[in-house]
Design brief:
Length: 106
């Protein structure tokens, strides 16, 4: 499993890189059932972006470089997340309702 210290470092690096509104963990780390083979699945919500959605995660790759953790990062704008999470068939709906908020901007 990924150590708590490494997880905290990952969160700090993502906050520095994105200044997100919220960071969720989902999947095993979000649901509370991680084991040695699980990725750290992260969803960031940012205020806005002119970047295409599929390119927003590149900054996360750079921010997490060197931590040597398996991770998957998705970055939504607040508007995108709010719209998507209203659809009960959307993964974002499940993340919003069952995911673990690990950071919220004060």
């Amino acid at each position: 499993m990924i150590s708590q210290e490494t997880i905290q470092e990952a969160i700090q690096r993502l906050v520095k890189a994105y200044n997100p509104l919220i960071i969720y963990f989902y999947g095993p780390y979000g649901w509370g059932t991680p084991d040695d083979d699980d990725d750290l699945n992260i969803l960031l919500i940012i205020e806005s972006s002119n970047e295409k959605a599929h390119k927003r995660g590149y900054k996360a790759f750079d921010a997490l470089f060197g931590l040597e953790i398996p991770s998957r990062v998705i970055v939504f704008t607040k508007e995108e997340f709010d719209m998507s999470s209203q659809d009960i068939t959307s993964p974002t709906h499940e993340i919003k309702n069952k995911g673990k908020i690990v950071y919220a901007r004060p």
